[in-house]
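Researcher: Here's a chain I'd like modeled. Treat it as a single chain, no partners, no ligands.
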Amino acid sequence: MFTVTLEHIDKWYHNPRSKDAVHALKDVNLELTEGIYGLVGRNGAGKSTLIQILVGNLPQTSGRILVNGEPVRTDGKAYKRLIGYMPQQQWIYEGMTCVQFLNYMYTLKGVAKKERKECAAEQLERVHLWEKRHHKIGALSGGMKQRLLFAQAIGGNPMLLVLDEPTAGVDPQERETLQELIVANSKGRIVLLSTHILSDIEGIAKKTITMEAGSPV
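Model: Modeled as a single isolated chain. Structure tokens:
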């Protein structure tokens, strides 16, 4: 059974222009196993900081992350190959086609060159975007862009899938489609879904993690 454990994770932010410091995460202890987890909380509660540490984009001040009971370097390639990360909508590749974008992202993720074309085709089919494969991202609807972001996250068969506000700004039909994709791809992996929309996780999350003032409550 695949497990990810967070032990005594703390994160401090220091303001270089003052003596003030922000204690963003406070002794966070979590054990994640296969299934979907909802991550909720007000702005400033620590959700984004927790996600950035978990995906290896930000170092913690103290504490450690373990995979299957073994401590890991979150900045290491081996750990990052286990992760699929879908960030909030931030499009800077709108001139790329869907295929070009996935090929580029899979290259960064370390997917072998001979596998990238097949992987991109498989994921575009999975998110119902095969017919748009040669369309530029800038011409897609908001919901299609979110599905494409999901496709890049799931490529490479990650064991830990981290989704940051995956349904933000999409219509109800696209929200339902994305929810179905998340459920269909949750088997055999850990899915952490951060959201402000509680209906996104109702009925699908086995546990809801509520962040408040830097700690799960």
